[in-house]
Amino acid sequence: MRRIVKLVSFMLLATSISSNTFAIEKELSEKASVLRGRVMDNEQQVLPGASIMVESLKKGIISDIDGNYTLTGLKPGTYTVKVSYVGYNPIELKITVPKGKTLEKDIVMNEGVELQEVKVNGVFTGQRKALSVQKNAMGVKNVVSADQVGKFPDSNIGDALKRISGINVQYDQGEARFGQVRGTSADLTSVTVNGNRLPSAEGDTRNVQLDLIPADMVQTIEVSKVVTSDMDGDAIGGAINLVTKNTPYNRVFNVTAGTGYNWISEKAQLNLGATWGERLFNDKLGIMLAASYQYAPGGSDNVEFEYETNDDGEVELKEAQARQYYVTRERQSYSAALDYKFNENHKISFKGIYNRRNDWENRYRVSYKKLNSKASKQSVVLQTKAGSSDNRNARLERQQTMDFTLDGEHMLGNLMMDWAGSYSRATEDRPNERYAAISYKGEDYGSSFADVFDEFPYSTKSLPNIKDAGWKIDELTNSNQSIVENEYKFRMNFELPLSQGEFGNSLKFGGKFVSKDKERETNFFEYNGDIIADWNNNLTSQIRSGFMPGKQYPTGTSFIDKGYLGKIDFSKYEGKEVLEEEAGNYKAKENILAGYLRFDQKLGDKFDLTLGLRIEDTHLKTSGSIYQMDENEEESLTPTGDQKNSYTDLLPSILLKYKLNDNGNIRASYTKTLSRPKYSALIANKSFNLADEEATIGDPNTKPTTSNNFDLSIDYYFKSVGLVSAGVFYKDVKSVNVEALGYMTGSQLGLGNYADTKFQVTQNMNAYDARIFGAEFAYQRDFGFIAPALKCVGFYGNYTYTHSSTNNYNPILSIADGDDVKMAGSPEHTANASLFYEKSGLNVRLSYNTASAFIDQMNTGSRELDRYYDSVNYLDLNASYTWGSKYKTTIYAEAGNLLNQPLRYYQGHKDRTMQAEYYGVRVNAGVKINF
């Protein structure tokens, strides 16, 4: 009831303000004048992050991401306005402001003398836009503009993010999927589109899948490492904001077409894109439409190993697998932006983006099971993952996200008001996912494995002949899975300048309401093997020649053919429902009501101070199931009923910025942020498999992770395009939520009849508190300061060091005093470096990225079984050539992952591989035309 009263009060306030908008405007307009407009270059491209200063009043503003600026509270008269921007000569304008009115004045800047020797249409253009925003931001921020993204061989947003200081990305099928900021796991970073946090298309995480969004669909990527109170508070690592293409200042029309090749699939790829924008009806209506299509047949070569400890605490190899993946990825994205300007004081706009990624996947897996048991219990299993014929005989995973926002901006004299209502949705569908397997039991493979505990263990014993009568049908299943998350959001903000001059200040305040609901539903059935009794007449040879983990693995193995499985009509057969697979189904509803105050104070010419307080009130309701399988493999599934939890967080912030001169700043800040646990961790599900001695546990009372963050940084911007910066940060993190894998007894799990049985348990928990100390360094500059002839050559690089420590461990964790346990998801070293050459339309860039290993999953039973994400080294090369003025044309060629870096996990020790997955080199080429 308290939450409803808050929300109703908030809505009544909004309604009251809206209904009196024009009356207030008339009253206030008699007292003050407003100057507003856009800053752009001489090609009418908007310039974000420009500084617009009225020198006589010591009053200024920074243009926003679309180049817009607004100066309020001006008395009528003539002012000298100074405008400055990285890479441009500062300009001064004489502007006369009329009494009680809003004057629109667009400002056009000319390129600085430092850049005249190089045509500024590529890397320099992108860098100066990014650096201008970073330079003038109150907090620590990194920015990548669209034209910078276009200079790298990045197919999705995640790949583009790995170029930013302090960011590491985790991969899936050769593409970056999740981003980690400043040594924190991906769970602790928020991803937003135009300021709205996107829901996740996966059931076990809140993280947004960055590989859903093509890189060419965004205008700007903003990474805020220090958040202010007017931003969402769930950003311990930082906040990644993807700004989609906004309405243009003038007509825009460009197209892209390209192709590529993958050595695993041995098939060509297709890349298409188009953008069109225009202003109509005397510039009152702006429209921008964009579309992107990518079709990429690919795959991967994979080996995986599972270890466990025996009763004496010794680590043993339990299972080994060789996997061949073929994945065709189709990515579609469409966006629209519209704005309508009623007059100089009132504007509404709409932004929408829809993304869809289809993955058609076939997997062929050889599994050696129970290798640490006696021969009679061991087996070899050959499994095929497939799908129905109408899904190309492959398992289709279709993930979709969308976000639609209607917002308005209003000038009410000195008072600025904006509001927005939005709807976001994310879904994942896996229809008719099929598995079929045959097994051969009773052979001793455990003793035949060589290089155990090395990087690539393998069996020296050949597989039995596929015609051997010992092969039996082991598995035949068909399932459907659906995940849906909806979000409804409404926000309203007000900003009021209170005073002007050297000690001017302003107050900003507002509120936001978010309502989320998420549901996962899986239907899983297993079928009698007689359906595929003639399997041995429908085989395909897999594990390809050239399998990258090594030729010691069983290449050319026979598997059940995907086309044979795709033709089965399971509706004709009666299957057995597998409740264990459905035990993870759940429903969750979460409402968040937030309000904030932000006070900005100038302290003379040099200092700026921002004080803030944000309050976030969270209410959660979940429901799931309790599953149990007894020793006779009899199953039961019992609803948990609704479980509720609520909590309130106070999130203060203090930011201080000292202006060294026109080219440098020192920043210091304290902020408090949080991260809510993923939904699957908050469900009261409990799953007990007594036959296999396994358990999974969720807890609706899991606390959110909170962090007190301290930052100190200094930066200097060169008169040409470039900067050097350094900073340190410290995070005091409480109640870190991690997924732990380990062992508990039946008595610990409340299973009285199995008190002494040891169960392997997977559970999310508030595992520990943590401290993170880090340092960041960045340098980017052309080499013109060495010799004028080298202005076309430059370097871009950054390095981040993080050190984490943990304490106050959950008693379930078997962590002894003195153990050096790092925070999960925290690489110690990350670095990016790029050499570029650009002159006369030719652009060549060589890029390198590296990150050290980090712990990914804790094991509650033994440090020897902790899972680590291995270190990575990526090398990319790309080149382009641009010509033409009326029809600017660019041809490009790019090669990614030249070092063939695998996705690799290891267990306990670096040489003990858990997973190694290779993707090979990616190559693409194409043409872009700007009409």
When the domains are counted, the total is 2
Radius of gyration: 29 Å
pLDDT averaged over residues? 86
Query: Using DSSP, what is the number of strands?
Result: 51
Query: Describe the biggest sheet?
Result: 32 strands, mixed
Number of helices: 8
CATH class of the largest domain: Mainly Beta
Helix fraction by DSSP (H/I, runs of at least 4): under 10%
Overall shape: it is globular
The oligomeric state of the chains shown is: single chain
Task: Give a short overview.
With 931 residues, the protein is mainly beta.
Description of the structure:
This protein is mainly beta. The protein has two domains: 2-121, Immunoglobulin-like (Sandwich); 141-930, Maltoporin, Chain A (Beta Barrel), CATH 2.40.170.20. Helices cover 7% and strands 58% of the residues. It is built from eight helices and 51 strands. The strands form seven sheets. It has a 32-stranded mixed sheet that branches. The longest helix has 18 residues, at 2-19. The two termini are 57 Å apart. 47% of the residues are buried. The model is unreliable at 3-8, 10-30 and 113-123 (pLDDT under 50).
Write the layout of secondary structure elements.
Layout: H1 2-19, H2 21-29, E1 33-41, E2 51-54, E3 59-62, E4 68-74, E5 77-84, E6 91-97, E7 102-104, E8 107-109, H3 123-136, E9 141-145, H4 146-149, H5 157-161, E10 167-172, E11 175-181, E12 189-193, E13 196-197, E14 218-224, E15 238-244, E16 252-262, E17 267-280, E18 285-309, E19 315-343, E20 346-369, E21 379-387, E22 395-412, E23 415-441, E24 449-450, E25 458-459, E26 472-499, E27 505-526, E28 539-542, E29 557-560, H6 562-566, E30 576-577, H7 579-582, E31 586-603, E32 607-623, E33 625-629, E34 635-639, E35 643-661, E36 664-675, H8 679-682, E37 686-689, E38 694-697, E39 705-717, E40 722-745, E41 758-782, E42 793-807, E43 829-839, E44 842-851, E45 854-859, E46 867-869, E47 872-883, E48 888-896, E49 903-907, E50 913-918, E51 922-930
Parallel strand pairs: 1-7, 1-8, 12-15, 33-37, 38-41, 40-45
Antiparallel strand pairs: 1-4, 2-3, 2-5, 5-6, 9-14, 10-11, 12-13, 14-15, 16-17, 16-51, 17-18, 18-19, 18-50, 19-20, 20-21, 20-22, 21-23, 22-23, 23-26, 24-25, 26-27, 27-30, 27-31, 28-29, 31-32, 32-35, 33-34, 35-36, 36-39, 37-38, 39-40, 40-41, 41-42, 42-43, 43-44, 44-47, 45-46, 46-49, 47-48, 48-51, ...
